[in-house]
Design brief:
- Helix content is 55%, strand content 0%.
- With 106 residues, the chain is an all-alpha fold.
- The longest helix has 27 residues, at 51-77.
């Protein structure tokens, strides 16, 4: 299943919650059109058919994405282990290329 980008999913979730809280219900008492549109988009984005499950799935996906990001940041900060007795490698700056001589004028 395709997964929406966390920023897109977070935006959908925030928009839905804002619309559900502020948009007036229609004449039958059902959610307004913007809330219904966002509910549908959340369902499609999360692979669910019910808005309650879509909200739950979106929150779980966002939590998982945040956990993966935190792990990646921690892994980037952790130095790579070296073999016992191995000399740590240091990086030296690259030498600038030697310029080519100018071509002789005809």
């Amino acid at each position: 299943m395709l997964m929406p980008h966390p920023a897109v999913l977070r935006g959908l979730l925030e928009e839905y919650e804002a619309a559900a809280a502020s948009e007036p219900a229609d004449a039958t008492g059902a959610p307004g059109p913007r809330t219904r549109d966002l509910a549908y988009t959340l369902c499609v984005s999360t692979g669910t058919r019910d808005v309650a499950r879509a909200l739950e799935a979106a929150r779980l996906q966002l939590t998982a994405a945040a956990t993966q990001t935190a792990k990646a940041v921690e892994a980037a900060r952790t130095p790579m282990p070296t073999k016992a007795g191995a000399k740590a490698e240091t990086m030296t700056p690259a030498k600038a290329p030697t310029p080519m001589p100018a071509a002789a004028a005809d």
